[in-house]
UniProtKB/TrEMBL annotation:
<dbReference type="Pfam" id="PF00197">
    <property type="entry name" value="Kunitz_legume"/>
</dbReference>
<feature type="signal peptide">
    <location>
        <begin position="1"/>
        <end position="26"/>
    </location>
</feature>
<dbReference type="GO" id="GO:0004866">
    <property type="term" value="F:endopeptidase inhibitor activity"/>
</dbReference>
<protein>
    <submittedName>
        <fullName>Uncharacterized protein</fullName>
    </submittedName>
</protein>
<keyword id="KW-0732">Signal</keyword>
<dbReference type="InterPro" id="IPR002160">
    <property type="entry name" value="Prot_inh_Kunz-lg"/>
</dbReference>
<keyword id="KW-1015">Disulfide bond</keyword>
<dbReference type="InterPro" id="IPR011065">
    <property type="entry name" value="Kunitz_inhibitor_STI-like_sf"/>
</dbReference>
<comment type="similarity">
    <text>Belongs to the protease inhibitor I3 (leguminous Kunitz-type inhibitor) family.</text>
</comment>
Amino acid sequence: MATRTLQTTLMMSLAWLLFIITTSAAADDQSPPVLDTDGQPVMRGTDYHILPAAAAPDPAGGLTLASLPSPNRCPLYVAQEPPEAEPSEGHPVHFSPVTADENVVREARDVVATFSVATTCARSTSWRIGVEDGETGRRFVATEGLPSYFRIDATATGGAYQIASCDDGPGCGAAGILMREGGRFLALDGPAFPFRFKRV
């Protein structure tokens, strides 16, 4: 009798586990895709310029690489092209979903972001969480070293997205622009900056 009860309990536990796994997988598949400026899904390994959304507070350019104000030129940090009459689109970036068989970049799912450009500083241009700003405590987004996971979430404004990282620390840090000595750097833990993705 005890063996039969144990078998029944084991079967119910396995059925429950299978239900949870199936439900989680179905929910993941329903995460909406991140869309580019043409309304097409952002795809793994495809190059995109990350530009300010139409709702952005100023007419600056796309994301690029720059050095923090310091004696050292390296490592390079994720920065924003300065405002100009016709702002630069910056350097192209490609995304790699952490889920190996996922080719579509989906909202609220972990991705690795990598600049598709060679530099003299590093072999890797993948994004990672960098040093803290001494004044605000916000974390800069750097390159080189082990990449961090980032996620892209839709904003209330159609076609605009925010970038965040939940990779280091108890909560997610939204990415915004932090001004430092004339430079515009991507930094976490502050007001989110709205972006859009333009396929190269």
